[in-house]
Specification:
The protein has 65 residues and is an alpha+beta fold. The chain has one domain. Helix content is 28%, strand content 20%. The chain has one helix and two strands; from the N terminus they run αββ. A two-stranded antiparallel sheet has the order 1-2. The chain is elongated, with a radius of gyration of 20 Å.
Length: 65
C-alpha cells in the first residue's frame, strides 16, 4: 500500500513557518526620508519584547577597510 505523505509534510512545514513567524520580533521600516536621512523602524511583534535600541543601519558596499 502506497501512502501519500505530501499533505502531512505540507502541514508540518506550514506549522513550522507559523511558529517561526510568531516567535521572533517583526520589525519593519515604516518611513524612509532620504532628504533628512531619517528612518522610522516600528516593532510589530505581538509580545513587543525585541529591544531595537542597539540596531543600526549600514551602507555595506561603501565600507572602506
Amino acid at each position: 500500500m502506497i501512502k501519500n505523505y505530501t499533505s502531512c509534510t505540507a502541514l508540518l512545514f506550514l506549522n513550522f513557518i507559523l511558529m517561526a513567524s510568531l516567535s521572533f520580533g517583526q520589525a519593519k521600516m515604516r518611513i524612509v526620508d532620504p532628504a533628512s536621512g531619517d528612518v522610522t523602524i516600528t516593532n510589530f511583534s505581538p509580545s513587543a519584547t525585541v529591544d531595537m535600541s542597539g540596531w543600526w543601519l549600514c551602507n555595506f558596499p561603501a565600507y572602506t577597510l
